[in-house]
Amino acid sequence: MPTLETKAAIRVIAPARLHLGFLDLNGGLGRRYGSIGLAVDKPATELTLQRSTRAGASGAEQERAAALVQRFAKYFGLPGDFTVDVVSAIPAHAGLGSGTQLALATGAAMMRLAGLAHDPRSLGELVDRGARSAIGMASFTDGGFIIDGGRGGADRAPPVIVRTPFPEAWRALLVLDKTAVGVHGDRETKAFATLREFPLTTAAHLCHLTLLRLLPGLVEQDLTLFGRALTEIQEVVGGHFAGAQGGGIWSSENVGRLIKRMGDLGAKGLGQSSWGPTGFAFVESQDAANKLFHTLGEEAKGLGLEILIVHGRNSGAQIFTGH
What is the pLDDT of residue 249? Predict the structure, then answer.
């Protein structure tokens, strides 16, 4: 039976991630999806977990956190009760990986408290994360720019095939719409099940774009090359999912309108993270990001939107032990 540290409090800070697109929704080679992702420094999920005389949860997403604590405790045979305080949480159903980061942060805290080694992939699979993508798990573990190799025949999360640092100078501007939520849950499952067939030639083109334009642009820090490839990937994949999210490539029309304005003003790599509604655009520096933020700030407010300037995060979650 695991020996639990009775006085320790475990604090975890887990980064959000952007889902930048899929490589192969056809699956003709035996692997489906293949996700492109990026860990970002904010928003983040932060929680503190410790032993207690009675179970309890507080803060943002407290009900989900409490359910995760119970599930991990039962699976690993951890005795007694725990309290979890979710100090901050990545917005749910916004395309930022909130569910995976909350699950991994909770599981990692419990493993640290129990003195057990933890593998984020195994923890994620235990609570049904990673069904289509491993970029959330890789963001938690290592951060950076990530591509996974798609879901194969085995019942496990896809393998990570690319993990590389994101340029320190580049910035992403996120556009958040707190009045909307992306497709999720049963609706998401149904959407994937009813999608029209994705042409194999289109999947091949996306892989070609990724290998010979997106990745070289990233490694050579050529934002124009990187951005051109990413925008095209987003247009192709977004068009495929349009019928499941209202008929367009944006789940929030206002987000789409503001992201396009950013493109007109020089931003590159325009798109929507996962099912949205969060949109993104990239610029080459903090100064460029600040300029766009101030230029479009009032317009964003008028549309009920929030603009957030973020860095690519080139390290994973932070885990602290205190008393």
Answer: 87
pLDDT at res. 192: 67
Q: Are 121 and 134 in contact (CB under 8 A)?
A: yes
* Segments making up each domain of the chain, as ranges: 9-322
Residues with Cβ within 8 Å of 309's Cβ and at least 6 positions away in sequence, in order, are 171, 172, 173, 174, 286, 289, 290, 293
How many angstroms separate the most distant Cα atoms in the chain?
60
Q: Which residues does the chain have with pLDDT short of 50?
A: 1
Handedness of CA 278, 284, 288, 289 (dihedral sign): positive
Residue 9 pairs in a beta bridge with 50, 322
Q: What is the predicted pLDDT for the residue at 186?
A: 65
Residue in the structure block whose two tokens are 């005795």: 79
Question: Which phi and psi (to 5°) does residue 132 adopt?
Answer: -120, -25
Kind and range of the H or E run holding 195 = none
Whether the CB-CB separation of 188 and 275 falls below 8 Å is answered with yes
Q: What pLDDT sits at residue 1?
A: 46
Q: Which CATH architecture has domain 9-322?
A: 2-Layer Sandwich (3.30)
Q: Which residues make Cβ contacts (< 8 Å) with residue 241, sequence separation at least 6? A: 191, 195, 249, 275
145 C-beta neighbours (distance < 10 Å), count: 26
